[in-house]
Amino acid sequence: MNQQEARLLIAQKMDEDGELLPNVKDRAKRYGWLFWHDYYSKRNEPGLPDVFLLRRGVLLVRELKSHVGRVSPDQRTFLDRFGEVALAAPGVVSVGIWRPMDLLDGTIDREMR
């Protein structure tokens, strides 16, 4: 088994809330980001992204998904609208989806540095 295959097996078993979210939060603190995640979103409008990170005039907006998690239509709408803001403010706002593989291959660390 090569490294990529091993990462895939780990990513497939990693869940969003119990493993991915705490790792994102830990990295945010390590890299000096202000971290926001609504732990009780039942009263919010559906679709609001999971994580907002702020640092030195930059906003990262990220939806967290498991390896096979799907983005709902409401989530897609929010991500698209934030994406419009990102187009108007390049380098200031960044929008995307993070999955376990992004944690394992270093993508999340690169984007937070």
Could you give a short account of the major beta sheet?
4 strands, mixed
Helix and strand succession? HHEEEHEHH
Cα distance, first to last residue?
A: 30 Å
Task: Work out the oligomeric state of the chains in this entry.
Answer: single chain
The share of residues in extended strands comes to 15-25%
Number of contiguous helices: 5
Task: Name the average pLDDT.
Answer: 95
What's the architecture, going by CATH? 3-Layer(aba) Sandwich
What is the number of strand segments?
4
Our count of domains comes out at: 1
Point out poorly predicted stretches: none
Helix content: 40-55%
Q: Could you walk me through the main structural features you see in this protein, from its secondary elements to its overall organization?
A:
By secondary structure, this protein is α+β, with helices and mostly antiparallel strands. The chain has a single domain (3-112), classed as 3-Layer(aba) Sandwich (Trna Endonuclease, Chain: A, domain 1). It contains five helices and four strands. The chain has helices at residues 3-13, 16-30, 73-88, 100-104, 107-112; strands spanning 34-36, 51-55, 58-64, 93-98. The protein has a four-stranded mixed β-sheet. Strand 3 (58-64), helix 3 and strand 4 (93-98) form a beta-alpha-beta unit. The mean pLDDT is 95.
